[in-house]
Design a protein that fits this description.
3 domains
Length: 505
């Protein structure tokens, strides 16, 4: 990007080339074309002959911000993607086999300015209040009772469970409607200029695509940022040892619930994601402790309904690209790194990268200061998510298999060790900068995995028995009353965005 506009002349649209389609490519193209309008010319290159991973079907609440930014009607999006609502994740067998806990998207109880609600709950336990922490969370109780409704003032925090392939189709239609040009073809060569920038993409057949800024959405292959520009990759499998997954879709046998399930087994875990029209299933595992055929047999032995697709085997290396923006190339999606889908962060990382590109969009030459800031922010996001994922494996009482003994004994990053020690000793969690997971997410997972605070803030002791009873019982009653008035999740989805009803009509 060396061209500079002549003084007084109208600026030429920046030429943005998105390499690769799928969820990452079309999320990028849709956001760029809709928000930038005539100031950018967006081209997306993809080949129908190259498949996409397409299993990132569970999301987290920030996706709603992406929909609002692009002025996408939620019901239309959900209808097109056969989506259901998601209030959190049910974790089974993680601390010990036979037990579970729920990581909800909602706030629990009511915080004091000096101390979070967990301190008042712990004070209550010492005074004989035996009700579980879960009873104070609206989203958690609604999920377990399979209820859902939009409440006034946005009082319900939720995400979506969706068909990722349908989501890409939906975004493609939007992007092309906003002027994105799609070019069918396989990338045969990435041409570099003398200064190291990408000059163009050469497709099979010889067609050449030039651009000012290139967005690498070529998945694990990382054709631009990795293979052509030789930006290295930091491997995090010594902390997150799972390296394989197998996915399959099944027919629905019951109404969809508003949560995803993550069921631990002796070498990893299994997911179950209910959509309107089917269920997404998959097994994540470490191939050192479970071979691929045995993993597939285990997956197929623990599903509900008839399989509607062939199994899809995936290999991956958890980690991050050392630089996700280099010269005039930005990596988005799997080309930038991979976080296993335990906390449904794949689509979120795509979204964060795309919105940062828009904020830092260059006018003329790419500023190195922008590149450095982008890389620092993206890496910080991934390291914070990495630590949260490691927590699920490290904080466990399981010693029933070599895999879990390895996880329990492994060294962990200092950043995570500090968070665990702080919570165990004081009951406190501090959120750093724009950290994705809120304090309550850390609290629910740490207590669910068996880490309980040894002390709590003295401000909770200020309340009299009567005041503490009034606080706790009032919060529980409000949650129970609100959930009792909510409709069944499946009924609400059918009325609000039912895909089958729309297809029949």
């Amino acid at each position: 990007m060396n061209s500079q506009p002549t003084a007084g002349a109208p600026k030429q649209p920046i030429r943005i080339v998105v390499a690769g389609g799928g969820t990452a490519g079309w999320m990028a193209a849709a956001a760029l074309s809709r928000t930038l309008g005539r100031t950018a010319h967006v081209t997306l290159v993809e080949s129908d002959l190259i498949g996409t991973v397409g299993v990132g079907e569970s999301t987290i609440p920030p996706l709603a911000n992406y929909l609002r930014l692009l002025n996408i009607a939620e019901a239309d999006f959900m209808r097109a993607t056969h989506a259901t609502f998601k209030l959190g994740i049910q974790f089974d067998n993680w601390r010990v086999p036979g037990e579970g806990y729920f990581h909800s998207f909602g706030a629990v109880g009511k915080d004091h300015w000096a101390a979070g609600f967990q301190h008042f709950w712990m004070e209550g336990r010492e005074r004989g209040h035996a009700q579980p922490y879960d009873d104070y969370c609206l989203e958690l109780i609604a999920a377990r009772e399979s209820k859902f409704a939009h409440l006034p003032d946005g009082r319900v925090n939720y995400a979506f469970q969706l068909d990722a392939t349908a989501f890409a189709r939906f975004l493609r239609s939007l992007a092309e409607g906003e002027g994105t040009q799609r070019i069918e073809g396989r990338i045969a060569e990435v041409e570099l200029a003398a200064d190291g920038d990408i000059a163009g993409l050469v497709l099979d057949g010889g067609r050449r695509i030039e651009g000012d800024l290139f967005v690498d959405c070529t998945g694990f292959r990382a054709l631009l940022i990795g293979q052509a520009m030789h930006i290295g990759y930091d491997d995090w499998t010594h902390w997150l040892p799972c390296d394989s997954a197998i996915a399959v879709q099944t027919s629905s046998v019951r109404p969809p619930v508003p949560y995803t399930r993550a069921m631990a087994h002796d070498a990893g875990w299994q997911w179950r994601i209910p959509l309107q029209h089917r269920v997404g299933n998959g097994i994540v595992y470490c191939s050192r402790y479970l071979d691929h055929d045995a993993a597939e047999e285990r997956l197929l032995g623990n599903i509900e309904g008839e399989t509607t697709t062939k199994t899809n085997r995936l290999r991956f290396v958890t980690g991050a690209r050392r630089k996700q923006w280099h010269r005039n190339c930005v990596a988005v999606g799997l080309s930038s790194g991979f976080m296993e889908p335990l906390e449904s962060t794949s689509i979120h990382l795509i979204q964060r990268a795309v919105l940062r590109i828009i904020r830092m969009l260059p006018a003329g030459r790419v500023a190195q200061a922008d590149i450095d800031e982008f890389n620092a922010q993206q890496l910080q996001d991934m390291e914070q998510i990495r630590d949260f994922l490691i927590l699920h494996y490290k904080a466990t009482d399981r010693r029933d298999s070599p895999f879990w003994r390895h996880c329990a004994g492994m060294e962990i990053p200092d950043t995570l060790a500090h968070k665990i020690d702080l919570f165990r000793q004081t009951g406190r969690v501090f959120r750093n900068n724009e950290e994705l997971f809120a304090e309550n997410s850390w609290i629910q997972v740490m207590m669910g995995q068996g880490i309980m605070p040894e002390t709590h803030h003295p401000v909770a002791g200020k309340l009299s028995d009567r005041e503490l009873d009034h606080l706790l019982s009032g919060l529980r009653a409000n949650v129970a009353r609100t959930v009792a008035e909510m409709p069944a999740h499946a009924d609400y989805v059918a009325r609000y965005c039912g895909a089958r009803e729309a297809e029949a009509a």
